[in-house]
Write a structure and sequence with these properties.
The structure holds 2 protein chains of 2 kinds. Chain A is an all-alpha fold. Helix content of chain A is 77%, strand content 1%. Chain A has helices at 8-18, 20-34, 41-44, 46-59, 62-70, 72-104, 111-126, 130-156, 170-175, 177-184, 203-229, 231-236, 240-246, 258-288, 290-310, 313-345; strands at 6-7, 197-198. In chain A, strands 1-2 form a two-stranded parallel sheet. In chain B, helix 3 (99-109) packs across helix 6.
């Protein structure tokens, strides 16, 4: 275990890369709730995201904190609820990955093949060391940062001002906060990576910087998507970010790049699936021992593949839309309550 | 074990090339798609440009169906190749065709992209195009030199979603030629 150390920076990179999957799905949800001003919602969520960042920083290793604060039995039970959460998210995001690939251009292929390959790679990474996984995601991050940077840069020239500004009731803006915080709450998955995290001087502040950076990135993605497609169309399309990408490019040089971008975005999916499997391994390991944490992974992956294949598309879309509330409870409220009790009881 | 695994992966990469068996020389690149309302639903008329660097003249194919998908399927049973809509530059919509569902199908269907220019026709789009000598070249010239550029598929759909209507230029027959009439607002 001693050699399986990761740095706090690697964990931040991992979270940023993994959360790009739900981030590009957000413009549709935000546009549905907050209309033309949906791009403001991620910026409004920055204080709440920083608060979560502070809470998680104080708690440290979440499974250990749960047992310390809530006692062995309740803490262990709560930790296993987190395992269930990871497993549930694994099915949902696996299903989401397959739906997206089929939608972008892989019609006529067996969806379960994509799911099996993606899950196989994620499983291979999750059975190894956290260090190797994080080094892999650092490469994924570099690729995705260049791709996303290019999309945002080209996207800015296609924005139409009239799509971004209209009178929106403050209550509508608030309606967009829940989906955004639902994604931010997934940051708690980083606290489930049990074990040693090496911190460097200044890491505390960099953590807040990356959290703010993530919210600003989501705001920019929403800005270019809603700015080009308009809020009503953004809300109606199944994958508005990739519809936007379809129209970007440089005439005669680089056109119809949505297939390539969708393929590269799989790197983010792999980071997310790997993070969820590591979360499962960490939480089960904290309760039943590290050997069980590793042993359960192939069975969990097989079960996720099977349940994902059996789940209808309508149910998956409904669950993805409703998962923000579950994320808020487990990713935000439970850590907040844990810290509060820890402070009150001095544990 | 690792060698077998990587050997298997390398074999898959070599064998699964991702090609679906459509050769470029058997592909008909559709440039204009005309959509008309008929009794069964929709009639599609597709014009390709000249192919093989001018050696093969353009072709005109038609297909009917109750939805866009079935009409496209019918269109693809015609001709000596596979009509691909990936390079479509003009979409001409005839009288009575509901615009919003048509554009939504095209944008979510993804094959066409959404950069094709939109035109309206009073009457049957196929008839107006059939009267023109070289509809592909004429329509593309009209788009470039005919004043304010007409909206493309995406711009049209964005307007329809926001305002419930969109202003489209009307395409008129002029002997063996085509001309651009005034804009007509509609949904």
């Amino acid at each position: 275990m001693e050699e399986d150390r990761i740095s706090a920076r690697q964990r931040r990179v991992l979270l940023f890369t993994a959360l790009l999957v739900p981030a590009v799905a957000l413009p549709g949800r935000l546009a549905e709730a907050a209309g033309d001003l949906s791009w403001l919602v991620p910026l409004l969520c920055i204080p709440a995201a920083l608060l979560l960042c502070w809470i998680l920083g104080r708690l440290g290793d979440l499974p250990a904190a749960l047992r310390r604060v809530w006692g062995g039995f309740f803490g262990g039970a709560l930790t296993l609820i987190y395992s269930t959460w990871c497993f549930f998210l694994l099915i949902l995001y696996l299903k989401g990955l397959v739906s997206r690939l089929v939608l972008i251009g892989a019609q006529g292929f067996a969806p379960i093949l994509f799911a099996a390959v993606a899950l196989g790679i994620a499983l291979h990474m999750a059975r190894g060391t956290r260090g190797a996984f994080c080094r892999g995601t650092e490469l994924f991050y570099l690729v995705l940062a260049v791709v996303l940077g290019g999309i945002l840069l080209l996207g800015v020239f296609h924005i139409k001002g009239e799509n971004l500004w209209s009178f929106v009731l403050p209550t509508e803006l608030v309606g967009g906060i829940a989906p955004m915080l639902g994604v931010v709450s997934l940051g708690t998955l980083g606290a489930l990576l049990a074990g040693n995290i090496e911190s460097a001087p200044g890491d505390k502040w960099r953590r807040y910087g990356w959290t703010t950076g993530f919210c600003v990135t989501v705001a920019l993605i929403t800005l270019v998507v809603v700015g080009r497609l308009g809020a009503p169309l953004t809300a109606a399309l199944p994958a508005p970010f990739f519809t936007l990408v379809q129209g970007l490019g440089v005439a005669g040089m680089l056109q119809r790049v949505e297939g390539a971008v969708a393929a590269l975005w799989v790197l983010s999916d792999l980071a997310l699936l790997g993070l969820l499997l590591f979360g499962l391994r960490g939480t089960v390991g904290a309760v039943c021992g590290q050997t069980w944490g590793r042993r359960i992974l192939p069975a969990a992956a097989m079960a996720a593949l099977l349940l994902g294949a059996l789940m209808s598309e309508e149910l998956a879309v409904g669950l993805r839309n409703g998962v923000a509330q579950v994320n808020l409870v487990l990713g935000f409220l439970v850590p907040a309550a844990t810290l509060l009790v820890a402070r009150l009881t001095g544990r | 074990m690792k060698r077998v695994l990587w050997g298997g992966v390398a074999l898959c990469v070599l064998l699964l090339t991702g090609c679906a068996g459509r050769e470029p020389e058997n592909t008909i690149l559709v440039r204009i798609l005309a959509v008309d309302r008929v009794e069964v639903g929709l009639r599609l008329t597709a014009y390709s440009g000249v192919q093989d660097l001018g050696k093969t003249p353009g072709v005109c194919l038609t297909g009917e169906g109750d939805t866009l998908e079935t009409a496209l399927k019918a269109l693809r049973t015609k001709g000596n190749g596979y009509p691909a809509l990936t390079h479509m530059t003009q979409l001409v919509v005839g009288e009575g065709v509901p615009l919003q569902p048509l554009l939504e199908s095209l944008v979510t269907g993804r094959e066409t992209g959404y950069s094709a220019t939109l035109w309206r026709v009073s009457g049957a789009a196929a008839e107006v195009l059939a009267g023109a000598k070289t509809p592909v070249e004429r329509l593309e010239a009209l788009e470039k030199n005919g004043g304010v550029p007409p909206p493309n598929i995406l711009d049209g759909l964005v307007s329809l979603k926001r305002e419930g209507q969109v202003a489209l230029p009307v395409l008129l027959p002029a002997g063996e030629d085509l001309t651009r009439g005034g804009d007509r607002r509609g949904g």
